[in-house]
Amino acid sequence: MDVITPLPELQAWGSLAITLGVGLLIGVERERRKGSGAHRHFAGVRTFALVGVMGCCVELLAVSWLTGIAALFVGALGVISHLNDRSKDPGATTEIALFLTFVLGALSVSHQALAAAGGVAVASLLLARTSLQQFSTQVLTEIELRDAMLLAGAALIVLPLTPDHPLPGMSYVNLRWVWSLVVLIMGVQALGYVGLRLMGARLGLPLSGLVSGFISSTATIATLGGRVAKTPELMVGAVSAAWFSSVSTGVQVLLIAATLDPASFKILWPSMLAAIAVSASLGLVVMLKKTEMASEAPSRGHAFSLWQSAGLALLLTTISALVSWAQDFWGTTVSMGAVALAGFGDLHAASAAVVSLYGKHLVDPHFLELAVLMAFTTNTFSKCVAASVSGGRNFGITVSLGLIFVCLAAWVPYLLHVL
Fold first, then answer.
1. In this structure, are 264 and 132 located in the same domain?
2. Residue 337 lies in a domain
3. CA 244, CA 238: separation in Å to the nearest integer?
4. Would you give the DSSP letter of residue 62?
């Protein structure tokens, strides 16, 4: 049976159709911005469509000098238009978009899907002009912009350049691993901050608890207790926020597991998901019963703390190294106790330590799951103490009962598996 291959003519027609669609899509948006009268901008829907088709045609002819001349012609059109623009705010968006339409037309010959996607992206970017301007000038602060640049630099510049091997004489410390944790913590804090800014104060204390729980659930509960001690009418909202902060704890454990060793994620997700579901349900039930939420507007400031992120990452690394060292010298019994003790201070550090052991094939899945659950239990104890000391008897008892219930839910998948 003969195999019929697509004719080159059909591919050419497809490229022309995509180019025409891209030119019309971008051109329609520019036509709406073109204005009218003596100060209207050049290039509307027809010009963009024709320039796109021209780019496709010269590329189909496969004559390099002709493609170069066509590109110079489109570029010259843009330069002449910009020089002749007499408006108060000439800009160069239309000229750049016109040349980009020509490039997309040429690209459609060899990469049709990429050209089509590029056309949609360009048109969407042009259409979002007002929203982007408002976001840049009215919503985004200078501090937030600096934080965004800092996070991008940490993730896209520093991280790839960080050595991915153990330090000499410190076999348990890998700089790439440490900086990955720094970027992860910064990113989680930034996402929480963005969510708080977008949602506003409408969700009040519960949302604040969820966001700050990514930094430290124990510290969050202690802070909430202090607020309740000063303002007892915030009791219900603070309890909801305390339980929502435990949602962040479970999520961050799973994020650490997925980052350090994806295989450990498959072992830990049933217990952590159970804890997340119960803590979220408790917080949501209390939040829905709350008729008046905190009304203060979310403050603007830093989206994350670099020094806090670096400090937490170093803490995670130090505890991981100590637990690994204990594992090598005294075996799993001592390292299990070390992980449980570490949970009193920080569950994420303890989880990172045991996940690191599992990634190095020093412990089995049973040890991994049991150690994380023990650290979860000791960390729950720390939260209960923090709630009782900072918020008084009523706040402490209420929050502790919910946290104990969450802890028991985390143990259920493990017990069902063992029994």
1. no
2. yes
3. 10
4. T
Average pLDDT, integer, range 83-112: 80
For residue 409, give its domain range.
Answer: 141-418
Contact present, 189 and 202 (Cβ < 8 Å)? no
Does one domain contain both 256 and 377?
A: yes
Q: Which residues, other chains included, contact 222 with Cβ-Cβ below 8 Å and sequence gap of 6+?
A: 386, 387, 389, 390
Cβ 189 vs Cβ 325: under 8 Å: no
Residue 24 and residue 71 in contact, taking contact as beta carbons nearer than 8 Å: no
**Burial tier of 18 (Cβ tally within 10 Å: 0-12, 13-18, 19+):** buried
Tokens encoding 183 = 């970027």
**331 assigned to some structural domain:** yes
Token readout for 223 is: 């802070």
Per the structure, how many domains does the chain have? 2
CA-based torsion, 70, 73, 78, 81: positive or negative: negative
pTM greater than the 0.85 cutoff:
no
> Is pLDDT above 50 for 212?
yes
**Cα–Cα dist 15/21, whole Å:** 10
**Do both 259 and 364 map to the same domain?**
yes
Beta carbons within 8 Å of 141's beta carbon, 6+ residues apart: 300
pLDDT tens-digit series, residues 310-338: 765 666 566 556 655 655 565 545 456 76
DSSP H helical ranges for 34-108: 45-61, 64-84, 93-107
Average pLDDT over residues 253-261: 86
Beta strand 166-167 pairing with 170-174: antiparallel
Beta bridge partners of 166: 174
Same domain, 43 and 166: no
Q: What is the pLDDT of residue 169?
A: 55
Q: Cα 257 vs. chain centroid, distance in angstroms?
A: 16
- The burial class, CB within 10 Å (0-12 / 13-18 / 19+), for 279 is buried
360: DSSP letter: T
Sequence-distant (≥ 6) Cβ neighbours of residue 251 within 8 angstroms = 214, 272, 276
- Residue 2 lies inside a defined structural domain of this protein: no
Is 361 buried (19+), middle (13-18) or exposed (0-12) by CB count in 10 A? exposed
- Residue type at position 358: Y
Tokens 């803490």, residue located: 315
Each residue's pLDDT tens digit, 265-324:
888 899 999 999 999 999 888 877 744 444 444 455 666 667 766 765 666 566 556 655
